[in-house]
């Protein structure tokens, strides 16, 4: 009899978090045999609920149970409050570097770089989550303009993050043969139509030592690391980015980039690394992760534009005399405009990528504080334009569990 009672207690342990549900007390699961799994536990958690709400209770029970199903509670603790809200402030710098080479037989080659960036942007926002699953939104303030939408899902041994960001850059740093000719920080003559950059990051990680190591303890505080532990990490990452500066007013920049006015690239990478959670004192956690990655899927699409002088009163520029051309060039209605677009797609070689994270956390009662940094770099290339995106972020959060 005592042995059966012990089995029943072990089966009920993952459902302890459901005791917070003030609407009703969960029925005791009828599953006590060796074939019990998370899905049967979730099904039992939905029994007896209104039909329309049963799917929600099934998901709720599955989330509650999956986070603690395989952990060693001597190393990892699950807080009783299931919900959490965070106030976040973020420092971020995203830099898009584009490079091209002009081949001039009479004068030699000319290397041109254009770096567009969002400055050192500062944003503030909120994040709301349940047991490691949540959404966040941040808005930049100050001299920069942009926003970030994020989604995270973290269980006992895995973590998935989605981040969608955008910014406008109204002055690129342009270098010709290493000499800077325009500067984001110094030039006042800004682009009439800023460069528009949008980026989507999706990454996922699996911890081989999910029993003792918690990724969630470091990055969303749905679990608490009680003792130091490390784990080998395997993961994957997908990045899709678009830079668009093809507006008619940017014809000179497009011409300098050999007619390329818009670039899209997508990359898929896989890798393995190591992560370690160090607990120097009660409530504190320092977490670090480093993971080299191979980019196996690497596609670049560039849009090549042709610009020409356009004036509604001129139908054939070649038929004009030299004096007439000079006259119409000074006409305010004469503008450079796009007269053609060509799309070119190329698949690139396998490249080496790198993903690194560092987090410092302090938990006290229902409150917690977290500071973490994240660094990514993505390279792309085609026949005439190549470059890279560098993105680093430092995030500070104050959270409350309820």
Q: In which order are the strands of the major sheet placed?
A: 2-4-5-6-7-10-12-13-14-16-17-18
Report on the biggest sheet: 12 strands, antiparallel, barrel
Category by helix and strand content: mainly beta
Q: What's the helical proportion of residues?
A: 10-25%
Strand proportion, as a percent range, falls in: over 45%
Order of helices and strands: HHHEEEEEEEEEEHEEHEEHEEEE
Identify low-pLDDT runs: 1-35
Number of helices: 6
Q: Taking Cα atoms only, what radius of gyration do you get, to the nearest Å? A: 28 Å
How would you explain this protein's 3D organization?
Mean pLDDT is 78; it is low at 1-35. The chain has 402 residues and is mainly beta. It is elongated, with a radius of gyration of 28 Å. Helix 2 packs antiparallel against helix 3. It has 6 helices and 18 strands. 13% of the residues lie in helices and 54% in strands. Strand 13 and strand 14 form a beta hairpin. The strands form 2 sheets. The protein has a 12-stranded antiparallel beta barrel. Strands 1-11 form a two-stranded antiparallel ribbon.
């Amino acid at each position: 009899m005592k042995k059966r009672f012990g089995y029943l207690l072990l089966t009920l342990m993952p459902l302890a978090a459901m005791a917070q549900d003030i609407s009703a007390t969960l029925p005791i699961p009828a599953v006590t045999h060796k074939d019990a799994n998370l899905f049967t536990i979730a099904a039992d958690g939905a029994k007896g609920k209104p039909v329309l709400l049963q799917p929600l209770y099934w998901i709720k029970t599955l989330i509650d149970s999956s986070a603690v199903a395989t952990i060693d509670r001597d190393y990892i603790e699950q807080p009783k409050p299931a919900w959490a809200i965070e106030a976040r402030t973020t420092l971020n710098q995203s830099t898009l570097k584009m490079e091209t080479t002009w081949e001039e037989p009479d004068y030699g080659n000319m290397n041109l770089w254009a770096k567009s960036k969002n400055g050192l942007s500062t944003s503030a926002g909120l994040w709301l989550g349940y047991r490691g699953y949540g959404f966040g939104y941040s808005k930049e303030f100050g001299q920069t303009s942009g926003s970030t939408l994020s989604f995270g899902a973290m269980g006992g041994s895995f973590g998935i993050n989605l981040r969608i960001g955008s910014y406008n850059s109204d002055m690129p740093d342009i270098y010709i043969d290493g000499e800077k000719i325009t500067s984001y920080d110094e030039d006042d003559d800004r682009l009439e139509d800023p460069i528009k950059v949008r980026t989507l990051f999706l990454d996922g990680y699996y911890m081989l030592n999910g029993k003792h190591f918690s990724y969630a303890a470091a990055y969303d505080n749905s679990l608490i690391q009680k003792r130091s532990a490390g784990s080998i990490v395997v993961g994957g990452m997908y990045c899709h980015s678009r830079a668009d500066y093809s507006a008619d007013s940017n014809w000179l920049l497009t011409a300098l980039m050999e007619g390329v006015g818009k670039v899209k690239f997508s990359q898929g990478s896989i890798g393995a690394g190591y992560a370690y959670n160090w607990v120097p004192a009660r409530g504190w956690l320092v977490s670090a992760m480093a993971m080299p990655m191979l980019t196996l899927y690497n596609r670049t699409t560039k849009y090549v534009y042709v610009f020409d002088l356009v004036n509604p009163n001129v139908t054939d520029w070649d038929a004009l005399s030299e004096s007439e051309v000079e006259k119409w060039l000074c006409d305010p209605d004469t503008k450079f405009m796009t007269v053609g677009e060509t799309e070119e797609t190329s698949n690139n070689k396998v490249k080496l990528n790198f993903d690194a994270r560092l987090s410092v956390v302090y938990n006290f009662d229902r409150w917690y504080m977290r500071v973490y940094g994240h660094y990514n770099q993505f390279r792309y290339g085609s026949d005439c334009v190549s470059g890279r995106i560098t993105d680093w972020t430092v995030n500070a959060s104050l959270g409350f569990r309820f």
